[in-house]
Amino acid sequence: MTKPFRFGLQAYSSSSPSDWRKLAKKTEDLGFSSFHLPDHYIGEGPAQRGCNHPLQNLAALPAMTVAAEAKKSIRIGCRVLCCDYHEPVVLPKEVATIDWFSEGRLEFGLGAGWIQSKYGQWGFQ
User: Fold this and answer.
1) Which of 18, 42, 77, 109 has CA 20 to 30 A from 86's CA?
2) What architecture (CATH level 2) is domain 8-122?
3) What mean pLDDT is predicted for residues 44-69?
4) What is the pTM of this model?
């Protein structure tokens, strides 16, 4: 059985809560099948510039929940949640709760992390 090719959108930030909801709605209205954001916590400065990623002003878990409420069929997710940034006892429960509220539309990606400049700024070795 083959599955159709799908396209998703990844967003890093928003200027307001209403703009975030509008972006999630528009993503679905334009025919995208998923709406994702990354798991970056670093603010403006040398470490952020060193990792070559856009500045992200939203935390992934609450932003995914709001996006899921904005529309009822688009899949939502984080690309990818870094193990080192989250409490291992808490994260599974938070993710399961988001999946429950979104009625099974969460796409869960989990990774080890790799951007050295971020780890250095937080004192990770």
Assistant:
1) 18
2) Alpha-Beta Barrel (3.20)
3) 81
4) 0.82
